[in-house]
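Support reply, case 0932

Customer input (verbatim):
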Amino acid sequence: MSGAKKVAKRLQMDDESWRRHANPWSVWTRFAAIPFIIGSIWSREWIGWWALVPLALTGVWLWLNVKVFAPIEQPASWAAKGIYGERLWLQEKSLVSREHRAIQRLLIVVGLAGFALTAWGLFVLEIWPTVFGAVLTVLGQLWRIDRFGLLYDELKRAGRIQ
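Our regenerated output:
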């Protein structure tokens, strides 16, 4: 089982959760949580253990996020198609071309590099690695969603999915 599939399982991502996560509000508010996570961790020097409060609240929001928005039954937006494509990539590997798998692996590396830079920047409280890492992470994830959307559109056009 892949790491992403394990995370989806831990988050109890059933069919309904995936449809709710495909709501563009879900996608964009998850991205909006990134500065709150960074700010919470960064603020540990100023507010000590109280920094865990906004971090925990953001964690609760990320958990609730896939439960509170209306489900999308027929993806039409860029974000919705991307999430539907992500689900196909995780659950229907046989439908995914070698090219899509290779590009996704590359983009995972980009995201992990960004995450590592962000973590390092937060550890040493240096602004440039933190900001550069966060930007790299977000750009990598946006590119992944875009590729997932292309995958969804390709499979839909080919009649391989409904």
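We compared this against your earlier run and they match. Two observations from our side: The helical segments are 3-10, 15-21, 24-42, 44-47, 52-68, 78-91, 98-124, 127-157. The radius of gyration is 17 Å. Please reopen the case if you see a mismatch on your end.
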